[in-house]
Amino acid sequence: MGFTSRLYRIPRPQTFLYLMSLRTGTELITLSLLLNKVSGFYGLLALLTGFHVSPLQLSMYIYSLIALIITVLLASHIRSQSPFHCLALACFYILDSIINAVYTTAFGITWFLVISQHHSNAAGNKALGPGGSTIDDTSGFTSPQYNVSHVDVSVAPDQGVSPGDEAVTVGQPGVSSTTTSSPSLGHGVLQPESISSIVTICALWAMRIYFVLVIMSYARLVLRQHILAQSRSSNTALHAGSKSSTMAENPFAQHLLEGKGWKGKLGRVMVKLGEKYWLGSEEGDEAWMSNAQSFRRREEGLSSPVPGVVERERRRRSGTGPPPPLPPLQGGQYLRVQDATDGR
Fold this sequence. Notes:
Layout: H1 3-7, H2 22-48, H3 55-75, H4 83-118, H5 132-139, E1 148-157, E2 165-173, H6 185-189, H7 192-233, H8 261-273, H9 275-279, H10 285-300, H11 307-318, H12 331-343
Antiparallel strand pairs: 1-2
Helix pairs in contact: 2-3, 2-7, 3-4, 4-7, 4-8
């Protein structure tokens, strides 16, 4: 494989954070996805209290609830290494990342517009952007009732009451720190408090991209192990049912067991979306699959991959094994037996 093809190849992690197997990493990532989607359920409960949400927020809560149900249905098949469910989980996680990117972009643009509006001459006007009204109501600084920068308290003697005092508060009008006449996205991004938000979002999305690569790599491992097991059971080559020698056979082909029914049709569609990634053979795949299996065995605490050795050891300890061999005969005994045989 050339350097150029390796450069543009999708990264394929072999472990999760160099500490755990891909299966354990996929389980942890799925657990974080479940915790994230539970927020949609509590968001819908907030509607029962009369809390006002924008249509964009409502759509996000409804999607989170649907995503929660789908994740629960697919998460239970990670340990069983079902090729259809693991592939569906990887595809759904990619789709969920794209949808979350759209929501993050929409809310981020609105937030920066609100920040820009607060620092411009348009402070106090209606917030711009999707969901801006909700941010305007809950932020507490975009449309204050009294637009003052600080409050002066003056104390004077109360008329008619000698021991009492009368306190007077005087608010000084707030002065905008900038001269921008209208809010804009660029103006909001350049504010000092926006830099930390951008850095945090970029760091979280870098982690999200790595999670996508881990789940995709685990789904590819499960698919290739399933294809290899089928080829060994039928005594056929790994690429026997494929049109190309560099592509493995589609495990959801119509003539195979996994290709029957709606699952087979959906499986073929999912494989078709990234056929070269899921079925393409590359240098080092065999060693990668072997290392992944040995890593999983070490994680599960299995000391020997050979089942016969484990079975013989179990029978020896339980006393149901074969009798011990006879002790070896000495040289003189062997000679006497031989002499007796010759005498006969």
